[in-house]
Design brief:
The complex is a heterodimer. Chain A is largely without helices or strands. In chain B, helix 1 packs parallel to helix 3, helix 1 runs antiparallel to helix 7 and helix 7 packs across helix 9. The chains are: A little secondary structure, B mainly alpha. Chain B: Keywords: Endoplasmic reticulum, ER-Golgi transport, Membrane, Protein transport, Receptor, Transmembrane, Transmembrane helix, Transport. Chain B: This is ER lumen protein-retaining receptor. Chain B: It is a multi-pass membrane protein.
Amino acid sequence: KELPQGHDEL
Amino acid sequence: MNIFRLAGDMTHLASVLVLLLKIHTIKSCAGISLKTQELYALVFATRYLDLFTDYISLYNTLMKLIFLVSSFSIVWYIRHHKIVRRSYDKDQDTFRHYFLVLPCFLLALVINEKFTVKEIMWTFSLYLEAVAILPQLVLLQRTRNIDNLTGQYVFLLGAYRSLYILNWIYRYFTEPHYVHWITWISGLVQTLLYADFFYYYFQSWKNNVKLELPA
């Protein structure tokens, strides 16, 4: 699934 | 995940643990700005709304939960713990929350990627995190004499920000379409706020003397 920008960071 | 990102997360985690350790073992929050801690709790509460909607990884979920729980615990300790709260110097910690919260919220309403509640809250949390350290820095300037743990706490936070910038540079060159202006600019502003502190921190470390900030 494509996440919005940088949302996999804390 | 690259090494810079992991090291950044670990120094961030270490900064929170140092602070909790200080409060828990010494039963003192002297030199710690409650305003900054409350702002961080707000930062995490608004940024991690995606805990309810997206699953990224176990690591991601666990770290988010740790940051949420630890930031609210720190606020609880300073406000309510019967011994710790006595060491809180309310008269020195006078920065007003809304000076930071309001502009950040308005900016998030205007400059964001997508006009949805979740996205605006996420953007707001980035802007707020960039400036949330200000009450702490003001408090350090005022009290000047800083104990080791408070100095280490701010140093670790600054290290975390610097490592995140290296992480973004790495991701920019290794991942296609990795261009995140909002994250980068607010992250850069946040890191620059530490520059002055870093200068004095390294000087005191080099000369092997206790850290003192100029008035």
